[in-house]
Amino acid sequence: MIIRDRTGTGGEVTTQFRGILQSLMAPTETISGLIGQMGFISGQAMLEQMGLQGSINAIVQAAQARGAAVRWIDLDPETTELDLASAERVIGERTRVVAVTAASNLLGTKPPVRRIARLAHRAGALLYVDGVHYAAHALVDVEELGADMFVCSPYKFLGPHCGVVAADPAVLEDLRIDKLAPATDDVPERFEFGTLPYELMAGTTAAIDFLASLSGERDETSHRRERVVAGFEALHAHEQRLQARLEAVENAVAHGRMPARAAALDLIAASGREEI
Fold first, then answer.
1. pLDDT value for 21
2. Which of 242, 88, 4 is nearest to 262 (CA)?
């Protein structure tokens, strides 16, 4: 995942973490601890209730360790969407971090991240986005989402288990991490644990190349980003066709009919049928 910095200079930054689990948990635990350096103490963290539990717990624990209050953005159980009125109520001048998922891995709900970003930035808070499920089903544009940090794992889009953080370079510059004296202090390398996980990086690159190939474009001299965009358009169209077929199954009840959602359906069979 790469994001252009917001200064308009066109610089790019991406960083990859390899933890014991080689998954989202490593960067979330690392970053949630580091964001305490950004004024977490005596402040507030805002969370919503449809995100991955591992990500939520890491940020809750980091807030509690620093005496910060945790406030929740309400979830409407009827629509399975976030209550934006609730977000407006709880995000305020004491808010330091707002953490939200870009797509629920249970029902596929895609919260209006851009609108939440505006609320967070208006309060001077950092927006942290869990994009694990989102990255598998939608083309990621971190800048468009308004995320200061976007976290995902390539295992969700056919790659290996590792954690990826895309962030504004200015945000990463303000975060300090314990490291060996000879290790570079440059961003993003300061966050890496020694030798880079080259085998995971190669697997991630191969996964992205495969997604780009779904576009049907064989001219590899074209810009890969353009092929990835076309590949995701083809993927989305295929998922929509599959979803329509599943929802048309007789006696099946589909949960999650919100207008904006990623491909995730919970189908319940009726009339004695155990599976579909």
1. 33
2. 242
